[in-house]
Amino acid sequence: MSKQATLHPVLPPLPGEPAYLRIKRWVVEHIGAGKLRNGDQVPSESDLVRMFGVSRMTAHRALRELTSEQVLRRVQGLGTFVAEPKVASPMVAIRSIHAEIESRGHRHSSDVLKLERVKLGETDVPLALPEGTILFHALVLHRENGMPLQLEDRYVNPEVAPEFLRQDFSAITPGDYLVSVSPIWRAEHSIEATMPNRQVARLLKLKPDEPCLVLTRLTWSGNLPATFARLFHPGSRYRFTAEIQTR
Amino acid sequence: MSKQATLHPVLPPLPGEPAYLRIKRWVVEHIGAGKLRNGDQVPSESDLVRMFGVSRMTAHRALRELTSEQVLRRVQGLGTFVAEPKVASPMVAIRSIHAEIESRGHRHSSDVLKLERVKLGETDVPLALPEGTILFHALVLHRENGMPLQLEDRYVNPEVAPEFLRQDFSAITPGDYLVSVSPIWRAEHSIEATMPNRQVARLLKLKPDEPCLVLTRLTWSGNLPATFARLFHPGSRYRFTAEIQTR
DNA sequence: TGCTTGGACATGTATATACATGCTAGTTTT
DNA sequence: AAAACTAGCATGTATATACATGTCCAAGCA
Hints:
Two copies of one chain form a homodimer.
Chain A: H1 19-32, E1 41-42, H2 45-52, H3 56-68, E2 72-75, E3 79-82, E4 91-93, H4 97-103, E5 108-119, E6 134-144, E7 147-156, H5 174-181, E8 186-194, H6 198-203, E9 212-221, E10 224-234, E11 240-245
Antiparallel strand pairs in A: 1-3, 2-3, 5-6, 6-7, 7-10, 8-9, 9-10
Helix pairs in contact in A: 1-3, 2-3
Chain A binds a DNA duplex (30 and 30 nucleotides) through helix 3.
């Protein structure tokens, strides 16, 4: 916690910028420029009062907000310090296939290949429900500008979505419909690379030897198992991406 | 945006609890109990002044903090409303291979296959640096209980880790070393499924026709491009997993 | 020497007040 | 009937002030 000598100059104010934002900007820019480093003490509220010609409450608000944003760390009686960067564990966000395609400015269409009732036990579905329970099953092929991009193989617990079979899944994807009717409380995901079986390869129009990127998803709504879904994607045309911004 | 009738009683104060926290608690408990629902208008600042006997600045602070926490949504001139729940986008966490293997109680070992200088341009590295820049290159095979699990192909900007080549990467993984010496500011990730080339297939001891799960990672430290890494995993023995808890 | 006390300092909370800004609805004007 | 204005209300920002609480350090005392 080393004290800095002179950190001026104070930033030129942007027109119409509130004073507390100007102070926040000054602090983060000094951190970004390396003039304030991890653990360094930042100017106290009364320092900022002198530097910026504001009241203490305004300086206080700037520092308090940066603290709630994890940029600073404050200790009463001691001072305010630059926080250690959080070990942001990189994450890959999984978005609705519909939203994703639309956000690229492309056209999303889908073919409903199956929409039926099945008995648990006839298929390999890891939903924690009694053997023989009736499940809804949907098999939907999603296309981007006509090209197959995702094959959705989904099993649904009728208790959480009784009207599932009556939906028009060329208008709303099964995934989007489910989040709209039943709140997801818990979910398990996994992403793997596999070679497709013949049906998957044919539907996704895969080249020979082209692998599949498979997202498997198991969700619960409250205590009820809600849905089990496998989303198959062509390995040559699909990837999960994420961009992380630490500060 | 429907107005509620009577939302009292005001909560009993907890001993020593600041007034603004008591107001925040009142709001979130009313939301949790369903007495305030999505889109409902919550009491205005002056309502809260009357209900809790505080000044407007105190009520303002409570509502402002809940707004920055995405619990409420405020519109100047109109009022404050319960925010729609954020569409919790499912995320897959990417962990250090070392931590991951250890957390399974297994033994992590690695072979350093290459540790060298290369010129940018001779290889296909998307780091935004001038052609001909010297880069550090490491090729490390990670094993879990002796079985190959990840092939790490990593290029590093010497500016962010000048001592990179002098490290013992059988003791610390290149990834873990880099986060320890240079703070990551931004990262791009992608996950894809590919068929491996012969070298990758041989090193990972892949069966014929076994695909690869590849995590590609590009990071920046400050304005500097820091590292480009491709992490190859055997499709049959590896997956990325995540568990999401919404509430 | 070791303990206590008090002062300086920094943050934490709360209030009263003032003025600015944005939205709505109703009224007046054109 | 359409357009312009205005009053009322709600939030947004800023200030001056007060007192509480936590930390550190140095002076005073046993």
